[in-house]
Amino acid sequence: MTHRNITLEAHPPQSQQLSRGRLVALALALTLAATGCGGGGGSGGTTPSVPAPPSPTPVIAGCSLLYPSASQPTQAGAVDPLLAAQWHLQPADPLAGTMGLGATIAWAKAQGRGVRVAVIDGPVETLHGDLSPNAVIGGSFDYRLGSATAPLPCTSQEAHGTAVAGILAAARSNGLAGAGVAPQASVVAYNAIEAGARAELTLQRIANALGRDAANQVYNLSWGSDDDGALHPADATVAAAIAQGVRQGRGGLGAIYVFASGNGGCQTVNGRADADPLDPTRCQYRDMTGFDGHLNLPGTFTACAVDREGRLPRWAEEGENLLVCGLSGDGAQGITTLAPGNRTRTDFGGASAAAPMVSGAIALMLEARPTLSWRDIRLILAETARENQPDDPSWAATALDRWPAQWLGGQPVRKRFSRRFGFGVVDAAAAVERALTFQPPLGAEVGPGTAVRTCEKTRSPGITLSDPGNTLFWQSDTLRFDGSDPADTDCPDRIEWVEVMFSATHPYAADLQIELISPDGRVSRLADSRVCGGVGKGGASGGPDRCGAYAGWRFLANRHLGESPRGDSGQGNWTLRVADAVVGDIGTWQSWTLRLSGR
Ligand SMILES: [Ca+2]
Ligand SMILES: [Ca+2]
Ligand SMILES: [Ca+2]
Hints:
It is a single chain. Helix content is 14%, strand content 23%. The protein is built from eight helices and 26 strands. α4 (199-210) runs parallel beside α5. The protein is globular and about 70 Å long. The model is unreliable at 12-45 and 51-55 (pLDDT under 50). Residues 224, 227, 262, 264, 287, 292, 317 line the site of one calcium ion.
């Protein structure tokens, strides 16, 4: 059993060594100050957005931050002074080569009104002058105090949640700070993640927050398991809460769960990110999003991140469970958002910044079309996302061009997928536009309670996975979904997501590379070989379970959206191939299950 830590996915992700059994949930400002990354640092990266309030009162004994009892004065209709610095809200500019969400265009149609989003994070300053207009009175919960009150930061270092909530739903046109992607969405905050808390307590609080209020429509989850390349299973109670919300949330249309992808793309052997972040020789192991069990739950939307030029940040993780990207900062091109103490900042980053952009875009879509199911929202996001870095070799064709064309006025969508960028960067304006006109295909509507069509098969090949070195020695096994089996009648006509449950005994699971090949030849690279666990492979602290175990491990793949289980040929051969890429330590591929889900 690997340890289960929960980490806020800010950039840089952590400034201290990972250790077993200890929660790593660090405040962003602290790590920025410690590494000198992102400019500014400490209090230098923040500026007051309004004068200091009169007669402040302490919220928690011993806390350094004080809060006013009265709300801040604002000017209705006044320009937000930091809006111009919020490049992520602007439309993409192909000529300049810059990316953007196009939120400023989308606002003409929707601003998130009537949509309630929940931020499960560290403390959130819901009393901030630019958040309080959207904060639901009595809707939040403070786990530190155990009361239904605003979960306020205690120090200026507890900055992560306020930054995330500000990106999502800071108020617009009030003459304060900037604006959120969904500037009229209603916000509640749950500070389930507390630095230093036991992982078990954190997960218990997260599960509690997920089930707290059926009025929540969108959940933003800018945190994840340790980004150390090891397998981290989803917490069972968290997974159950999400599964229930997907089934029963929003009157059966499904609540929306947006996760940050992860910051483990280029980690160093000892987990330290402060040596020289730009030195590639420091990049000793690469975490992938497929190794974080929460991101493999059907029903989660995993948000990747790209920088202003659409490039992959050094810390970004790859994976087949990515859906669409938000934007994030890297040093000088950071994200401008809110900071505790009624301040603002210009240096937020990491995958934590990208997720609330996706959540905000979904809030805009839900105002435009409240009856969209969670599955239709996925489709629309995938279809309308903007391709970044089109020359990147990771882009490959999908089947989405054939499927939506049936009901989108005959306009084919030449949609590609990338294990780095999912279907591309969210285009809020295009997504809102499509939400307004979306027509599901006849006979494949998804309404309240519509069942997912699912079929699955299992094989137990019992193959020994040798590691001869020099070249990869692939071992393959195939499952057939050609319609000849009675079980095939439950298969969807069009796939929305694919799950692979993989079991192997192996003393060092990270040696394995795993790929799924669809009948149409599309390849999902589920796992790369890597170093894992925060120490080198030869490290003394490793045990046989250092990388976690492939015991029915679930991978989720979004690449196959729109494909038919039988494929174009009708033969329906789905092949899983596995190679042990590292000499030393071998194991046995015991079994695998393929589950195809869609409509
Ligand atoms: Ca504002
Ligand atoms: Ca990760
Ligand atoms: Ca090996």
